[in-house]
Write a structure and sequence with these properties.
By secondary structure, this protein is of the alpha/beta class. The protein has a single domain, classed as Rossmann fold (3-Layer(aba) Sandwich). It is globular and about 40 Å long. The protein is 46% helix and 16% strand. Strands 2-1-3-4-5 form a five-stranded parallel sheet, sandwiched between helices. It has seven helices and five strands. Helix 3 runs parallel beside helix 5.
């Protein structure tokens, strides 16, 4: 029985950064994805950039209990996928996307946009700037999980091609 647990613990999880100012959607999406992925959440583009870019000002520390902070070093992460809300205060998803793509370690990290607006021009813009997907929220659970798996699979194939 102990061997089973150890095997389960060794299984590496892909990491996803969720960026959304809507706390309810953030929590819902985190709960939905938590079994299959390691999830990091932030409520603004500025928080995302501080977490993603080690050159950014380190003054901001997300408020969590100390045990959680030990488990997840919040100073800098390189996620396997970033999911960005389009409409956020201070800095919208488009601006965050552009800043993320300037960070060398994240240039090939797939970014999915999600929005509560069903706006064809936003979907078109996401495609034109190189986003991996555009999801209307709320999204069907199965559809979202399948889209995330598809984006991660495409990113893996792209990386394998590049490494050859």
């Amino acid at each position: 029985m102990e061997e089973e647990l150890n095997t389960e613990e060794k299984k590496p999880h892909k990491t996803i950064l969720l960026v959304d100012d809507d706390e309810i959607h953030l929590l819902f999406t985190e709960l939905l994805l938590n079994d299959e992925y390691e999830i990091f959440t932030v409520k603004s583009g500025k928080e995302a950039l501080k977490l993603l870019d080690k050159k950014h000002d380190k003054k901001h520390e997300k408020k969590h209990d100390k045990e959680h902070d030990k488990k997840h070093d919040k100073k800098h992460i390189v996620p396997d996928l970033i999911m960005l809300d389009v409409m956020m205060p201070e800095m919208d998803g488009w601006e965050v996307f552009n800043k993320i793509k300037k960070i060398a370690a994240l240039k090939s990290t797939p970014i999915m946009f999600f929005s509560s607006m069903e706006d064809k021009s936003a979907r078109k813009k996401a495609h034109e700037i190189g986003a991996s997907d555009f999801v209307i929220k709320p999204c069907d659970q199965t559809d979202l999980l399948n889209r995330i798996k598809d984006v991660l699979k495409k990113a893996k194939h792209k990386k394998e091609k590049k490494d050859k």
